[in-house]
Amino acid sequence: MPDFRQMQLVPTDVLLVIDMQNDFCPGGALAVAGGDQVVPVINQLARRFEHVVLTQDWHPHGHISFASSHPGAAPFTTVDVAYGKQTLWPDHCVQGTPGAELHPGLSIPHAELILRKGFRREIDSYSAFLEDDHKTPTGLAGYLRERGLKRLFLCGLAYDFCVRYSAVDGTTAGFECVVIEDATRAVELPGSVEETSNALASNHISRISSTTDLLTR
Ligand code: VGL
Ligand code: ZN
To answer: Along the chain (217 residues), what's the average pLDDT of each consecutive run of 10 residues?
Structure first.
């Protein structure tokens, strides 16, 4: 594992802020415990990065990931869909609703891109790179590559879903990915945090703290 104490941020690094939206924060439709607590941590981190990219979960009404779209099904259960198992969620991050807006405390005026994902009714997208059919690209890899951005520091919500899959797919796409652990929070379905930590480890994705020298110097 790289020694982040010896390292410096370089201009080809990017902070990737995943789904810091009202619906994932306390009071929201799919609230993650302590989700709002990472807002000041992320604001502070963002000042260290020349390049910041945000993502926004952005679902149409009737989205395949909504339990309400599957008669008789309850949130937090799974169903089989064309691309495999789909966890069902309460309706969340519906396009154009207040719940889909970025958290009002987020202050990153220099963010360069807001990438929306999950906007196809029949395909969910946890990952910022590849939708859950494992085929449909979001365009982010092309954007980063064309701009010469190489190393991704991930934060935001949720650790065990969108942060996890974005980090793994980013690695597969050829980017070095690092998760800033205290700048994330987890949904915490049974086993999901442990599985995430294992998936990150087996993909050689480092987990660091926002207080690491690299990020504070
Ligand atoms: C997410 C569940 C459903 C996330 C998005 O941002 O982690 N989780 N949609
Ligand atoms: Zn979603």
So the answer is: 82 98 98 98 98 98 98 97 97 98 98 98 98 97 98 98 98 98 97 98 97 91
Establish whether residue 25 lines the binding site of ligand 1, counting it when its CB lies within 6 angstroms of any ligand atom: no
Any atom of ligand 1 within 6 Å of the Cβ of 157:
yes
- Please count the structural domains in the chain: 1
Any residues with CB less than 8 A from the CB of 68 and at least 6 apart, and which? 90, 91
Q: Cβ–Cβ contacts within 10 Å for residue 203, how many?
A: 15
| E strand or H helix that includes residue 153 | strand 151-157
In a domain, 83, yes or no: no
Give the domain extent around 19.
13-59+92-215
pTM of the model: 0.97
Report the separation in Å between the CA atom of 52 and the middle of ligand 1, taken as the mean of its atom positions: 20
